Amino acid sequence: MHDAAIQAKQLAVTREGMPVLQDLTFSIATGRITGLIGPSGSGKTTLMRAIVGAQQISAGELTVLGLPAGHKNLRSKIGYVTQSPAVYADLTVAENIRYFGTIAGASKADIDGTLKQVDLVKQTGQVASTLSGGQRARLSLAVALVGNAELLVLDEPTVGLDPVLRRDLWALFARLARSGHTLLISSHVMDEAEQCDDLLLLRDGLLLSHTTRQALLKETGKRRVEEAFLALVEGRHA
Amino acid sequence: MNFRMTYATAVRVLKQLHHDKRTLGLLFAVPCLLVGLLAWIYDGGIVFDQIGAPLLGIFPFIMMFVVTSVTTLRERTSGTLERLLSMPVGKLDILFGYAIAFGVVAIVQAVLVSSLAVYAFGLDIIGPQWFLILVALADAILGMALGLCASALARTEFQAVQFMPAFVLPQVLLCGLVIPVSQLPAILEAIAAFLPLTYAIEAMQLVSRESTPSVEAFQDLLIVLAFAVGAILLGAVTLRRKTK
Protein backbone atom coordinates (compact mmCIF):
# COMPACT_ATOMS: atom_id res chain seq x y z
CA MET A 1 0.00 0.00 0.00
CA HIS A 2 1.06 3.58 -0.59
CA ASP A 3 0.66 6.02 2.26
CA ALA A 4 -0.17 8.75 -0.18
CA ALA A 5 -2.42 7.98 -3.14
CA ILE A 6 -1.40 11.16 -4.93
CA GLN A 7 1.67 13.27 -4.39
CA ALA A 8 2.46 16.56 -6.12
CA LYS A 9 5.73 18.46 -5.84
CA GLN A 10 5.85 21.97 -7.27
CA LEU A 11 3.47 20.83 -9.96
CA ALA A 12 2.76 23.32 -12.73
CA VAL A 13 0.65 23.15 -15.86
CA THR A 14 0.79 25.72 -18.62
CA ARG A 15 -1.71 25.66 -21.47
CA GLU A 16 -1.16 27.77 -24.56
CA GLY A 17 1.30 29.97 -22.71
CA MET A 18 -1.06 30.61 -19.79
CA PRO A 19 -0.23 29.19 -16.37
CA VAL A 20 -3.22 27.12 -15.21
CA LEU A 21 -1.67 25.47 -12.17
CA GLN A 22 1.32 26.86 -10.31
CA ASP A 23 3.63 25.41 -7.72
CA LEU A 24 1.22 22.86 -6.23
CA THR A 25 2.69 20.71 -3.49
CA PHE A 26 0.39 18.37 -1.61
CA SER A 27 -0.23 14.74 -0.86
CA ILE A 28 -3.57 12.97 -0.75
CA ALA A 29 -4.08 10.18 1.73
CA THR A 30 -5.25 6.70 0.77
CA GLY A 31 -8.75 5.62 1.76
CA ARG A 32 -10.13 9.09 2.35
CA ILE A 33 -12.44 11.50 0.59
CA THR A 34 -10.59 14.60 -0.47
CA GLY A 35 -12.61 17.52 -1.74
CA LEU A 36 -11.03 19.65 -4.44
CA ILE A 37 -12.82 22.90 -3.82
CA GLY A 38 -12.60 26.15 -5.70
CA PRO A 39 -14.57 28.52 -7.91
CA SER A 40 -14.98 27.65 -11.56
CA GLY A 41 -11.85 28.48 -13.53
CA SER A 42 -9.58 27.77 -10.57
CA GLY A 43 -7.88 24.81 -12.28
CA LYS A 44 -9.78 21.91 -10.67
CA THR A 45 -10.46 20.08 -13.92
CA THR A 46 -6.92 20.61 -15.20
CA LEU A 47 -5.51 19.16 -11.97
CA MET A 48 -7.81 16.14 -12.25
CA ARG A 49 -6.89 15.61 -15.90
CA ALA A 50 -3.21 15.75 -14.95
CA ILE A 51 -3.82 13.11 -12.27
CA VAL A 52 -5.59 10.72 -14.66
CA GLY A 53 -2.86 11.30 -17.25
CA ALA A 54 -4.90 13.24 -19.81
CA GLN A 55 -3.02 16.50 -19.28
CA GLN A 56 0.69 16.93 -19.74
CA ILE A 57 2.42 18.63 -16.81
CA SER A 58 4.90 21.43 -17.50
CA ALA A 59 7.01 21.32 -14.36
CA GLY A 60 7.34 19.54 -11.05
CA GLU A 61 6.37 15.99 -10.16
CA LEU A 62 3.07 14.20 -9.93
CA THR A 63 3.02 10.69 -8.50
CA VAL A 64 -0.17 8.63 -8.50
CA LEU A 65 -0.34 5.32 -6.58
CA GLY A 66 3.44 5.23 -6.60
CA LEU A 67 3.82 5.77 -10.35
CA PRO A 68 4.29 8.92 -12.43
CA ALA A 69 0.91 10.27 -13.60
CA GLY A 70 -0.09 8.92 -16.98
CA HIS A 71 1.79 5.62 -16.47
CA LYS A 72 0.33 2.74 -18.46
CA ASN A 73 -0.22 0.59 -15.36
CA LEU A 74 -2.39 3.28 -13.80
CA ARG A 75 -5.10 3.01 -16.43
CA SER A 76 -6.78 0.07 -14.72
CA LYS A 77 -6.42 1.63 -11.27
CA ILE A 78 -8.14 4.97 -11.79
CA GLY A 79 -11.83 5.60 -12.35
CA TYR A 80 -12.44 9.03 -13.88
CA VAL A 81 -15.68 10.95 -14.22
CA THR A 82 -15.45 13.93 -16.54
CA GLN A 83 -17.43 17.07 -15.80
CA SER A 84 -19.88 16.62 -18.67
CA PRO A 85 -21.15 13.04 -18.71
CA ALA A 86 -18.97 11.13 -21.19
CA VAL A 87 -21.22 8.27 -22.23
CA TYR A 88 -22.54 7.14 -25.60
CA ALA A 89 -25.80 9.07 -26.01
CA ASP A 90 -27.02 6.64 -28.68
CA LEU A 91 -26.56 3.48 -26.58
CA THR A 92 -28.76 2.18 -23.78
CA VAL A 93 -27.68 2.32 -20.14
CA ALA A 94 -26.93 -1.42 -20.21
CA GLU A 95 -24.95 -1.21 -23.45
CA ASN A 96 -22.88 1.69 -22.13
CA ILE A 97 -21.99 0.01 -18.87
CA ARG A 98 -21.31 -3.33 -20.55
CA TYR A 99 -18.92 -1.77 -23.06
CA PHE A 100 -16.98 0.32 -20.55
CA GLY A 101 -17.09 -2.61 -18.11
CA THR A 102 -15.42 -4.87 -20.66
CA ILE A 103 -12.75 -2.25 -21.32
CA ALA A 104 -12.17 -1.90 -17.57
CA GLY A 105 -11.96 -5.70 -17.22
CA ALA A 106 -15.01 -5.97 -14.93
CA SER A 107 -16.94 -9.18 -14.35
CA LYS A 108 -20.62 -9.48 -15.26
CA ALA A 109 -21.58 -9.36 -11.57
CA ASP A 110 -19.65 -6.08 -11.16
CA ILE A 111 -21.38 -4.65 -14.19
CA ASP A 112 -24.85 -5.46 -12.84
CA GLY A 113 -23.92 -4.38 -9.32
CA THR A 114 -22.71 -0.99 -10.47
CA LEU A 115 -26.09 -0.01 -11.92
CA LYS A 116 -27.66 -0.86 -8.54
CA GLN A 117 -25.11 1.33 -6.76
CA VAL A 118 -26.11 4.37 -8.77
CA ASP A 119 -29.81 3.46 -8.79
CA LEU A 120 -30.24 3.05 -12.53
CA VAL A 121 -31.66 -0.47 -12.60
CA LYS A 122 -35.04 0.73 -13.86
CA GLN A 123 -33.43 2.61 -16.74
CA THR A 124 -31.32 -0.32 -17.98
CA GLY A 125 -32.96 -0.50 -21.40
CA GLN A 126 -33.26 3.25 -21.91
CA VAL A 127 -31.15 5.06 -24.51
CA ALA A 128 -28.79 7.49 -22.75
CA SER A 129 -29.90 10.51 -24.77
CA THR A 130 -33.40 10.16 -23.26
CA LEU A 131 -32.13 10.13 -19.65
CA SER A 132 -32.52 13.16 -17.42
CA GLY A 133 -29.39 15.18 -16.65
CA GLY A 134 -29.06 13.57 -13.25
CA GLN A 135 -29.54 10.05 -14.59
CA ARG A 136 -26.90 10.65 -17.23
CA ALA A 137 -24.49 11.96 -14.59
CA ARG A 138 -25.07 8.79 -12.59
CA LEU A 139 -24.46 6.62 -15.64
CA SER A 140 -21.18 8.45 -16.16
CA LEU A 141 -20.35 7.79 -12.51
CA ALA A 142 -21.23 4.11 -12.93
CA VAL A 143 -18.71 3.88 -15.79
CA ALA A 144 -15.99 5.09 -13.40
CA LEU A 145 -17.06 2.66 -10.67
CA VAL A 146 -17.44 -0.44 -12.80
CA GLY A 147 -13.77 -1.42 -12.88
CA ASN A 148 -13.53 -1.23 -9.07
CA ALA A 149 -10.54 1.11 -9.40
CA GLU A 150 -8.66 1.99 -6.23
CA LEU A 151 -8.53 5.70 -7.03
CA LEU A 152 -11.67 7.54 -8.09
CA VAL A 153 -11.30 10.99 -9.61
CA LEU A 154 -14.72 12.57 -9.85
CA ASP A 155 -15.13 15.97 -11.49
CA GLU A 156 -18.27 17.60 -10.05
CA PRO A 157 -20.24 14.33 -9.89
CA THR A 158 -23.21 15.70 -7.96
CA VAL A 159 -23.82 19.02 -9.72
CA GLY A 160 -27.46 19.53 -10.62
CA LEU A 161 -28.72 16.45 -8.79
CA ASP A 162 -31.68 16.60 -6.48
CA PRO A 163 -30.92 16.69 -2.73
CA VAL A 164 -32.06 13.12 -2.06
CA LEU A 165 -29.81 11.72 -4.76
CA ARG A 166 -26.94 13.86 -3.63
CA ARG A 167 -27.26 12.53 -0.12
CA ASP A 168 -27.37 8.95 -1.45
CA LEU A 169 -24.30 9.48 -3.60
CA TRP A 170 -22.30 10.97 -0.74
CA ALA A 171 -23.31 7.94 1.34
CA LEU A 172 -22.01 5.77 -1.52
CA PHE A 173 -18.74 7.73 -1.61
CA ALA A 174 -18.34 7.23 2.14
CA ARG A 175 -18.92 3.47 1.75
CA LEU A 176 -16.34 3.33 -1.03
CA ALA A 177 -13.80 5.19 1.13
CA ARG A 178 -14.44 2.79 4.03
CA SER A 179 -13.76 -0.17 1.74
CA GLY A 180 -10.35 1.27 0.92
CA HIS A 181 -10.94 3.43 -2.16
CA THR A 182 -9.40 6.85 -2.39
CA LEU A 183 -11.72 9.54 -3.70
CA LEU A 184 -10.84 12.93 -5.09
CA ILE A 185 -14.03 14.86 -5.69
CA SER A 186 -14.18 18.35 -7.12
CA SER A 187 -16.92 20.82 -6.48
CA HIS A 188 -17.53 24.52 -6.70
CA VAL A 189 -20.35 24.16 -4.20
CA MET A 190 -18.91 24.78 -0.77
CA ASP A 191 -21.74 22.81 0.86
CA GLU A 192 -20.27 19.64 -0.55
CA ALA A 193 -17.00 20.32 1.20
CA GLU A 194 -18.80 19.59 4.47
CA GLN A 195 -18.91 15.94 3.41
CA CYS A 196 -15.19 15.53 2.78
CA ASP A 197 -12.48 14.32 5.15
CA ASP A 198 -9.76 16.48 3.65
CA LEU A 199 -9.92 19.63 1.60
CA LEU A 200 -7.75 21.07 -1.14
CA LEU A 201 -8.75 24.66 -1.70
CA LEU A 202 -7.75 25.97 -5.10
CA ARG A 203 -7.97 29.49 -6.44
CA ASP A 204 -6.48 30.89 -9.67
CA GLY A 205 -4.29 27.81 -10.06
CA LEU A 206 -2.73 28.22 -6.64
CA LEU A 207 -3.21 26.06 -3.58
CA LEU A 208 -4.97 28.19 -1.00
CA SER A 209 -5.00 25.56 1.68
CA HIS A 210 -4.70 21.82 2.19
CA THR A 211 -6.18 20.73 5.45
CA THR A 212 -8.90 18.70 7.08
CA ARG A 213 -12.33 20.23 7.33
CA GLN A 214 -12.16 20.53 11.12
CA ALA A 215 -8.71 22.12 11.06
CA LEU A 216 -9.85 24.63 8.43
CA LEU A 217 -12.85 25.67 10.48
CA LYS A 218 -10.77 25.90 13.64
CA GLU A 219 -7.97 27.84 11.97
CA THR A 220 -10.32 30.42 10.51
CA GLY A 221 -12.75 30.40 13.41
CA LYS A 222 -15.69 29.89 11.06
CA ARG A 223 -18.61 27.48 11.20
CA ARG A 224 -18.94 26.70 7.51
CA VAL A 225 -16.43 25.91 4.76
CA GLU A 226 -17.76 28.70 2.58
CA GLU A 227 -17.06 31.31 5.25
CA ALA A 228 -13.64 29.79 5.87
CA PHE A 229 -12.84 29.94 2.16
CA LEU A 230 -13.78 33.62 2.05
CA ALA A 231 -11.72 34.31 5.15
CA LEU A 232 -8.69 32.70 3.52
CA VAL A 233 -9.11 34.60 0.25
CA GLU A 234 -9.58 37.91 2.00
CA GLY A 235 -6.75 37.20 4.41
CA ARG A 236 -4.39 36.64 1.50
CA HIS A 237 -5.37 39.78 -0.34
CA ALA A 238 -5.59 42.01 2.72
CA MET B 1 -3.83 -5.69 -29.33
CA ASN B 2 -6.46 -7.39 -27.23
CA PHE B 3 -9.10 -9.41 -29.03
CA ARG B 4 -11.79 -9.02 -26.38
CA MET B 5 -11.55 -5.23 -26.41
CA THR B 6 -11.41 -5.01 -30.20
CA TYR B 7 -14.48 -7.22 -30.40
CA ALA B 8 -16.30 -5.25 -27.68
CA THR B 9 -15.58 -2.03 -29.57
CA ALA B 10 -16.83 -3.47 -32.86
CA VAL B 11 -20.05 -4.66 -31.15
CA ARG B 12 -20.48 -1.26 -29.51
CA VAL B 13 -20.15 0.61 -32.84
CA LEU B 14 -22.62 -1.79 -34.51
CA LYS B 15 -25.09 -1.28 -31.66
CA GLN B 16 -24.82 2.48 -32.08
CA LEU B 17 -25.67 2.05 -35.76
CA HIS B 18 -28.47 -0.33 -34.86
CA HIS B 19 -30.07 2.40 -32.72
CA ASP B 20 -29.73 4.84 -35.59
CA LYS B 21 -32.14 3.26 -38.06
CA ARG B 22 -32.16 6.25 -40.36
CA THR B 23 -28.40 6.23 -40.90
CA LEU B 24 -28.51 2.50 -41.46
CA GLY B 25 -31.29 2.95 -44.01
CA LEU B 26 -29.32 5.66 -45.80
CA LEU B 27 -26.16 3.53 -45.84
CA PHE B 28 -27.94 0.71 -47.64
CA ALA B 29 -30.67 2.42 -49.64
CA VAL B 30 -28.76 5.35 -51.16
CA PRO B 31 -26.17 3.33 -53.12
CA CYS B 32 -28.93 1.00 -54.34
CA LEU B 33 -30.94 3.97 -55.59
CA LEU B 34 -27.88 5.51 -57.24
CA VAL B 35 -27.01 2.31 -59.10
CA GLY B 36 -30.62 2.06 -60.23
CA LEU B 37 -30.53 5.65 -61.40
CA LEU B 38 -27.33 5.04 -63.33
CA ALA B 39 -28.73 1.93 -65.00
CA TRP B 40 -31.76 3.96 -66.00
CA ILE B 41 -29.69 6.90 -67.35
CA TYR B 42 -27.58 4.66 -69.59
CA ASP B 43 -30.48 2.32 -70.28
CA GLY B 44 -28.39 -0.63 -69.03
CA GLY B 45 -26.06 -0.21 -72.01
CA ILE B 46 -22.32 -0.42 -72.50
CA VAL B 47 -21.45 2.75 -70.54
CA PHE B 48 -23.31 1.31 -67.52
CA ASP B 49 -21.16 -1.81 -67.83
CA GLN B 50 -18.01 0.33 -67.96
CA ILE B 51 -18.67 2.56 -64.97
CA GLY B 52 -21.01 0.34 -62.93
CA ALA B 53 -18.31 -1.75 -61.27
CA PRO B 54 -15.96 1.19 -60.47
CA LEU B 55 -18.87 3.05 -58.88
CA LEU B 56 -19.51 0.05 -56.61
CA GLY B 57 -16.03 0.78 -55.28
CA ILE B 58 -16.60 4.50 -54.83
CA PHE B 59 -19.86 4.34 -52.82
CA PRO B 60 -18.43 2.52 -49.79
CA PHE B 61 -15.33 4.71 -49.93
CA ILE B 62 -17.27 7.99 -49.73
CA MET B 63 -19.90 6.81 -47.24
CA MET B 64 -17.45 5.28 -44.80
CA PHE B 65 -15.33 8.42 -45.00
CA VAL B 66 -18.25 10.61 -43.97
CA VAL B 67 -19.64 8.24 -41.33
CA THR B 68 -16.26 7.63 -39.71
CA SER B 69 -15.07 11.23 -39.69
CA VAL B 70 -18.27 12.34 -37.98
CA THR B 71 -18.49 9.44 -35.48
CA THR B 72 -14.87 9.70 -34.36
CA LEU B 73 -15.15 13.47 -34.13
CA ARG B 74 -18.20 12.94 -31.93
CA GLU B 75 -16.11 10.62 -29.74
CA ARG B 76 -13.45 13.29 -29.49
CA THR B 77 -15.85 16.11 -28.60
CA SER B 78 -18.22 14.18 -26.30
CA GLY B 79 -15.38 13.11 -24.01
CA THR B 80 -15.92 9.38 -24.54
CA LEU B 81 -12.59 9.12 -26.36
CA GLU B 82 -10.71 10.86 -23.54
CA ARG B 83 -12.44 8.54 -21.13
CA LEU B 84 -11.56 5.43 -23.15
CA LEU B 85 -7.94 6.52 -23.49
CA SER B 86 -7.67 6.89 -19.71
CA MET B 87 -8.72 3.22 -19.45
CA PRO B 88 -6.70 0.06 -20.14
CA VAL B 89 -7.49 -0.15 -23.85
CA GLY B 90 -5.06 0.05 -26.76
CA LYS B 91 -5.54 2.67 -29.47
CA LEU B 92 -5.39 -0.06 -32.08
CA ASP B 93 -8.12 -1.99 -30.22
CA ILE B 94 -10.37 1.02 -30.71
CA LEU B 95 -9.38 1.57 -34.35
CA PHE B 96 -9.61 -2.05 -35.43
CA GLY B 97 -12.92 -2.30 -33.56
CA TYR B 98 -14.16 0.51 -35.78
CA ALA B 99 -12.66 -1.14 -38.87
CA ILE B 100 -14.41 -4.44 -38.14
CA ALA B 101 -17.78 -2.79 -37.47
CA PHE B 102 -17.70 -0.62 -40.58
CA GLY B 103 -16.25 -3.56 -42.53
CA VAL B 104 -19.36 -5.59 -41.66
CA VAL B 105 -21.57 -2.72 -42.83
CA ALA B 106 -19.50 -2.43 -46.01
CA ILE B 107 -19.87 -6.15 -46.79
CA VAL B 108 -23.65 -5.99 -46.41
CA GLN B 109 -23.72 -2.85 -48.55
CA ALA B 110 -21.49 -4.38 -51.24
CA VAL B 111 -23.46 -7.64 -51.39
CA LEU B 112 -26.73 -5.74 -51.62
CA VAL B 113 -25.63 -3.19 -54.21
CA SER B 114 -23.64 -5.56 -56.42
CA SER B 115 -26.41 -8.18 -56.43
CA LEU B 116 -28.93 -5.54 -57.35
CA ALA B 117 -26.67 -4.19 -60.10
CA VAL B 118 -25.91 -7.61 -61.58
CA TYR B 119 -29.25 -9.42 -61.18
CA ALA B 120 -31.82 -6.64 -61.32
CA PHE B 121 -30.19 -4.04 -63.56
CA GLY B 122 -28.19 -6.42 -65.78
CA LEU B 123 -24.69 -5.12 -65.06
CA ASP B 124 -22.29 -7.25 -67.12
CA ILE B 125 -19.24 -8.22 -65.14
CA ILE B 126 -17.15 -11.09 -66.42
CA GLY B 127 -15.24 -11.73 -63.18
CA PRO B 128 -16.62 -13.22 -59.95
CA GLN B 129 -18.91 -11.21 -57.70
CA TRP B 130 -16.93 -12.14 -54.58
CA PHE B 131 -13.92 -10.27 -55.89
CA LEU B 132 -16.09 -7.22 -56.46
CA ILE B 133 -17.27 -7.44 -52.85
CA LEU B 134 -13.69 -7.86 -51.65
CA VAL B 135 -12.58 -4.68 -53.43
CA ALA B 136 -15.63 -2.80 -52.10
CA LEU B 137 -14.67 -3.96 -48.59
CA ALA B 138 -11.09 -2.74 -49.04
CA ASP B 139 -12.46 0.60 -50.29
CA ALA B 140 -14.72 0.87 -47.25
CA ILE B 141 -11.81 0.27 -44.89
CA LEU B 142 -9.76 2.81 -46.81
CA GLY B 143 -12.57 5.38 -46.56
CA MET B 144 -12.88 4.66 -42.86
CA ALA B 145 -9.16 5.07 -42.25
CA LEU B 146 -8.97 8.36 -44.17
CA GLY B 147 -12.09 9.60 -42.37
CA LEU B 148 -10.35 8.89 -39.10
CA CYS B 149 -7.34 10.98 -40.11
CA ALA B 150 -9.62 13.79 -41.32
CA SER B 151 -11.48 13.85 -38.01
CA ALA B 152 -8.23 14.71 -36.25
CA LEU B 153 -7.96 17.88 -38.33
CA ALA B 154 -11.56 18.97 -37.70
CA ARG B 155 -12.82 20.79 -34.64
CA THR B 156 -16.55 20.51 -35.38
CA GLU B 157 -18.82 18.09 -37.22
CA PHE B 158 -19.46 20.88 -39.71
CA GLN B 159 -15.76 21.01 -40.59
CA ALA B 160 -15.52 17.23 -40.70
CA VAL B 161 -18.14 17.06 -43.43
CA GLN B 162 -16.28 19.76 -45.40
CA PHE B 163 -13.23 17.52 -45.47
CA MET B 164 -15.11 15.04 -47.64
CA PRO B 165 -14.76 17.05 -50.88
CA ALA B 166 -11.17 17.94 -49.94
CA PHE B 167 -10.01 14.37 -49.31
CA VAL B 168 -12.31 12.45 -51.60
CA LEU B 169 -13.22 14.43 -54.72
CA PRO B 170 -9.67 14.92 -56.08
CA GLN B 171 -9.22 11.15 -55.88
CA VAL B 172 -12.54 10.55 -57.64
CA LEU B 173 -11.52 12.93 -60.44
CA LEU B 174 -8.07 11.38 -60.90
CA CYS B 175 -8.85 7.68 -60.30
CA GLY B 176 -9.59 6.81 -63.92
CA LEU B 177 -13.35 7.08 -63.76
CA VAL B 178 -13.59 10.41 -65.60
CA ILE B 179 -10.89 9.56 -68.14
CA PRO B 180 -8.41 6.68 -68.09
CA VAL B 181 -5.37 7.42 -65.91
CA SER B 182 -3.03 6.84 -68.89
CA GLN B 183 -4.67 9.74 -70.75
CA LEU B 184 -4.17 12.25 -67.92
CA PRO B 185 -1.50 14.99 -68.29
CA ALA B 186 1.85 13.56 -67.16
CA ILE B 187 1.96 15.36 -63.82
CA LEU B 188 -1.59 14.36 -62.91
CA GLU B 189 -0.87 10.78 -63.96
CA ALA B 190 2.09 10.76 -61.58
CA ILE B 191 -0.10 12.14 -58.80
CA ALA B 192 -2.80 9.56 -59.51
CA ALA B 193 -0.22 6.82 -58.98
CA PHE B 194 0.07 7.94 -55.36
CA LEU B 195 -3.67 7.94 -54.68
CA PRO B 196 -5.24 4.75 -53.34
CA LEU B 197 -8.56 5.13 -55.13
CA THR B 198 -6.75 4.79 -58.49
CA TYR B 199 -5.87 1.20 -57.60
CA ALA B 200 -9.34 0.44 -56.27
CA ILE B 201 -10.91 1.58 -59.52
CA GLU B 202 -8.36 -0.35 -61.60
CA ALA B 203 -9.20 -3.50 -59.65
CA MET B 204 -12.92 -2.92 -60.29
CA GLN B 205 -12.28 -2.38 -64.00
CA LEU B 206 -10.23 -5.57 -64.15
CA VAL B 207 -12.92 -7.67 -62.46
CA SER B 208 -15.49 -6.47 -64.97
CA ARG B 209 -13.20 -7.62 -67.84
CA GLU B 210 -11.38 -10.73 -66.61
CA SER B 211 -13.10 -14.05 -65.89
CA THR B 212 -10.61 -14.87 -63.11
CA PRO B 213 -8.93 -12.09 -61.16
CA SER B 214 -5.37 -11.61 -62.45
CA VAL B 215 -2.22 -11.05 -60.41
CA GLU B 216 -2.55 -7.39 -61.28
CA ALA B 217 -6.05 -7.24 -59.77
CA PHE B 218 -4.82 -8.83 -56.54
CA GLN B 219 -1.88 -6.41 -56.50
CA ASP B 220 -4.31 -3.51 -56.76
CA LEU B 221 -6.32 -4.94 -53.89
CA LEU B 222 -3.21 -5.30 -51.74
CA ILE B 223 -2.14 -1.73 -52.51
CA VAL B 224 -5.54 -0.42 -51.39
CA LEU B 225 -5.31 -2.45 -48.18
CA ALA B 226 -1.75 -1.24 -47.55
CA PHE B 227 -2.94 2.38 -47.86
CA ALA B 228 -5.79 1.59 -45.47
CA VAL B 229 -3.49 0.05 -42.86
CA GLY B 230 -1.11 3.00 -43.24
CA ALA B 231 -3.98 5.43 -42.70
CA ILE B 232 -5.18 3.50 -39.64
CA LEU B 233 -1.70 3.69 -38.12
CA LEU B 234 -1.58 7.40 -38.94
CA GLY B 235 -5.01 7.66 -37.28
CA ALA B 236 -3.57 5.99 -34.17
CA VAL B 237 -1.01 8.79 -33.94
CA THR B 238 -3.87 11.32 -33.91
CA LEU B 239 -5.44 9.67 -30.83
CA ARG B 240 -3.53 11.29 -28.01
CA ARG B 241 -3.86 10.18 -24.43
CA LYS B 242 -2.37 13.46 -23.24
CA THR B 243 -3.04 17.04 -24.27
CA LYS B 244 -0.35 19.69 -24.11
Q: What Rg of chain A do the Cα atoms give?
A: 18 Å
Query: The biggest beta sheet of chain A, please?
Result: 6 strands, mixed
* Number of helical regions of chain B: 10
Find the structural class of chain A using helix and strand composition.
alpha/beta
Low-confidence stretches of chain B: none
Shape by Cα distribution of chain B: globular
How many strand units of chain A?
A: 10
Spatial order of the strands forming the largest sheet of chain A: 6-7-8-3-9-10
The chain-level mean pLDDT of chain B equals 89
Radius of gyration of chain B: 18 Å
Beta-strand content bin of chain A: 25-35%
Main β sheet profile of chain B: none
Distance between the termini of chain B: 26 Å
- Helical amount of chain A: 25-40%
Query: Can you write the helix and strand succession of chain A as a string?
Result: EEEHEEEHHHEHEHEEHH
Work out the oligomeric state of the chains in this entry. Answer: heterodimer
**Which chains share the greatest interface?**
A-B, 32 and 25 residues
Q: Which blocks of ≥5 consecutive residues of chain A have pLDDT under 50?
A: none
Give the averaged pLDDT of chain A, no decimals: 90
Task: Describe this structure in a few short sentences.
Chain A has about 240 residues and is an alpha/beta fold. Chain A is about 35% helix and about 25% strand.
Protein architecture, described:
The complex is a heterodimer of chains A (238) and B (244). Helix content of chain A is 36%, strand content 27%. Chain A is an alpha/beta fold and 238 residues long. Chain A has a domain at 78-149. In chain A, α2 (93-104) crosses α3 and α7 crosses α8. Chain B is mainly alpha-helical and 244 residues long. Chain B has one domain (3-238). Chain B is built from 10 helices and no strands. Chain A binds chain B through residues 15, 49, 52-56, 70, 75-76, 78, 80, 82, 84-92, 95, 99-100, 102-105, 127, 143, 147, and chain B through 4-5, 8-9, 11-12, 15-16, 19-20, 78-80, 82-89, 241-244.
